[in-house]
């Protein structure tokens, strides 16, 4: 039975940010880039900001029960405002310096960015993440055409195989000194 996935509405974003905060609670990248003090609150605030930007500029999809979320940004998205960037810097606090020093390869030109994907821990193992990825790729194809590519990064080694099953390939592996390993990946649609 297919899992119902739909475009997020503004009213969904707070709950969706809560889902992402739960999904990323023990994630290497967020644990490395967000201060331990007030971590969960900072994480949820950052996720809410990013979801709002992605909904305004790209595509945010959710499961009907809001236990799964995916956000994608098009290559033509406007950059966040200066106010947005200041708030992001405030929430990252003293960890902003390590975040800005990370040397991760640029994503391919004209590729969409799979900015985030998260499934609430209580809803893992039922295929929700895979359904969100497929729905996200379909939404990108609908907006940009069947040949659109989608790029992303993950610092979860287990995630690599999951994304490979969806047609992504690893394009770079970045070992960050005293930080997580980041896998850059891309999905190139059949032409």
TrEMBL record:
It comes from the Bacteria. Pfam families: Acetyltransf_1. PROSITE patterns: GNAT (PS51186). Residues 3-190 form the N-acetyltransferase domain. InterPro entries: Acyl_CoA_acyltransferase (IPR016181), GNAT_dom (IPR000182), Trichothecene_AcTrans (IPR052523). This is GNAT family N-acetyltransferase. It comes from [Mycobacterium] wendilense.
